[in-house]
Specification:
Number of strands of chain B: 11
Radius of gyration of chain A: 13 Å
Strand content of chain A: over 45%
Helix content of chain B: under 10%
Structural class of chain A: mainly beta
Largest interface: A-B, 22 and 20 residues
Shape of chain A: globular
Order of helices and strands of chain B: EEEEEEEEEEE
Oligomer: heterodimer
Largest sheet of chain A: 7 strands, mixed
Order of helices and strands of chain A: EEEEEEEEEEE
Strand content of chain B: over 45%
Helix content of chain A: under 10%
Chain lengths: 117, 111
Amino acid sequence: GAVVSQHPSRVICKSGTSVKIECRSLDFQATTMFWYRQFPKQSLMLMATSNEGSKATYEQGVEKDKFLINHASLTLSTLTVTSAHPEDSSFYICSALDRALAKNIQYFGAGTRLSVL
Amino acid sequence: RKEVEQDPGPFNVPEGATVAFNCTYSNSASQSFFWYRQDCRKEPKLLMSVYSSGNEDGRFTAQLNRASQYISLLIRDSKLSDSATYLCVAASGAGSYQLTFGKGTKLSVIP
């Protein structure tokens, strides 16, 4: 199956700092990537859909100025959590779609566990 | 609101047992359905797609009833390695790229 690499796997930061998370498709071109967030004992919630070369589409309730998404190439999307606060502590997971396979299967990265102190 | 509902469990079953999970979805426009498994503090991994005709992959059988908006997963001959949280997922939107996840059903297979 397709491989999606997400980095870093774990971040601990102070309140007010910004954190950048990278999501890379290693063996395919991902024109579309997705960013999810999962709080403990909750379901994965889609935050935004990222399309290469265009602005991301954010889900209702997700602040686009706080969660900056850049999808500048066919293999890389980044999520920057700006001015992080403790309530942003969560498990952030990206996924990528391999449209060349003509299937709507999303391949997930290993996730980033963010803890804001 | 688009929702996918699952029994959170936990289901504690002995090795070799057969266990069934159920799921309902509220968005009648959902087009594709999946079961994912998620191990503790890890990313979800695709287990299988779900089709109206029912499909089987080894010890796993999935069923979809569109009229009732109901999905099921049956695991036969449970192994210790099956212990995980099973996520029911409905896809909708253009290209069926919009995934809605259930909260998951936790399974523990006991020796």
